[in-house]
Amino acid sequence: MSLDTENTQPKAVVLLSGGLDSATVAAIAKSDGYQVHAVSFDYGQRHKVELKAAYRVALQLGIQHHKMISINLNDVGGSALTDSALAVPDYDAQSAEHIPITYVPARNLTFLSLALGWAEILGARRIYIGVNAVDYSGYPDCRPEFIKQFEVTANLATAAGLTGEPFKIIAPLQTLTKAEIIQWGTRFGVDYAQTISCYNPDEQGRACGRCDACHYRKQGFMDAGIPDVTIYAPE
Amino acid sequence: MSLDTENTQPKAVVLLSGGLDSATVAAIAKSDGYQVHAVSFDYGQRHKVELKAAYRVALQLGIQHHKMISINLNDVGGSALTDSALAVPDYDAQSAEHIPITYVPARNLTFLSLALGWAEILGARRIYIGVNAVDYSGYPDCRPEFIKQFEVTANLATAAGLTGEPFKIIAPLQTLTKAEIIQWGTRFGVDYAQTISCYNPDEQGRACGRCDACHYRKQGFMDAGIPDVTIYAPE
């Protein structure tokens, strides 16, 4: 805690899922000169190994303030990522244009809202999020229009947004390909072996190698010309 | 469940806190011809009696679908409504222009986001919320500008908002005084004895009579010329 008061850097809240993208964003926020406050969500996701990955990433990047917020999105239902009655499908190029069953309704909106509340309490005015509009799964709440509009709403929703320096939502990966993200993160010192992207990992946290997220991640390492450090479950 | 399939009315999600305003809104949504799906939030509030009140209100109004979503806003902290280390102040006319300590950062934004996710799953396109910009406690997320911007954001955040009939956020109390709200609700058959507004009720759910919320409620019944059915704790 004494470190908090000694640290004169401005604060930023970073949404840290334990995946490749958010780990890269956390490293970027640090490199931008912010004192990083990471937040992860225990939202009833099937892939709990993601939360362990978030802890490892925070540790690896030297982030000293990491908060876990519990919210039961199972109560809301309707997605293969939170509802164990629905199966996670393999990647399918034909269906890549549609919004997949792994879409969790209004998830980024809910997470950003909670991050905003925490940022207001901390006195942080920057919120970093690893959404990406290129190699993504077609989720509406990953698009730049959504992020931009959320920023407007955030400043109307809060006391801080009305009176002080306005909130800014920073999404530095927005226009990058997965390969570019991996190249940036590698430069900023991210150890991707600590991260997990898979929607359907086994109990040891090994990636399935077959879902959407595995597909984009594999391809990203390949295109970046960087060895893929991901641990895959045996076929 | 069979009722759901037989009911051909369009669906609406109503944020139901157990307070006077949201009970009125639920009655209005019913009278507007919607099949009402009520949602309440167990968010670590001190005044848990509020949740019991929400059940009673749903029952009294004949709402058959009522969902409780758990989210721990204590994890976020910073408000007298969720943090037991902070005292709920008495109403003070001098300080009524400032944002009070009972403000929960980004609460309405978070609740609306969760309600939106549920609405998307249900196939509802209307979300009713009992915010009020007249006799309110100065919360930024009760203002019409906020509600309007949230609607724009909601339609960008969701799959349904992109492809189908857009979401509409309906805040029918926005320009009404507390007295007018009580007059409307009484006409629509709300039994206000079932509701609770107090920020600091005792264990039996009796109102303190001294906080902001009690102040506005008392005054509302008085101005409406309707007997105050609220049960107050003895001084």
Automatic annotation (TrEMBL), chains A, B:
The EC number(s) given in the record are 6.3.4.20
The reaction(s) this protein catalyses: 7-carboxy-7-carbaguanine + NH4(+) + 2 ATP = 7-cyano-7-carbaguanine + 2 AMP + 2 diphosphate + 2 H(+)
Q: Which SUPFAM superfamilies match?
A: Adenine nucleotide alpha hydrolases-like
Keyword check for Coiled coil, yes or no.
no
- Superkingdom is Bacteria
Q: Which GO terms describe its biological process?
A: tRNA queuosine(34) biosynthetic process
Positions bound to Zn(2+):
198, 208, 211, 214
Q: Which Pfam families match?
A: QueC
Q: Which InterPro entries match?
A: QueC, Rossmann-like_a/b/a_fold
For the ligand (ATP), the binding residues are 16-26
UniProt GO MF annotations: ATP binding; ligase activity, forming carbon-nitrogen bonds; zinc ion binding
User: Which cofactors must be present for this protein to function?
Assistant: Zn(2+)
State the similarity comment: Belongs to the QueC family.
Chain's role: Catalyzes the ATP-dependent conversion of 7-carboxy-7-deazaguanine (CDG) to 7-cyano-7-deazaguanine (preQ(0)).
Q: Give the protein name, as stated in the record.
A: 7-cyano-7-deazaguanine synthase
Protein species of origin:
Halothiobacillus neapolitanus (strain ATCC 23641 / DSM 15147 / CIP 104769 / NCIMB 8539 / c2) (Thiobacillus neapolitanus)
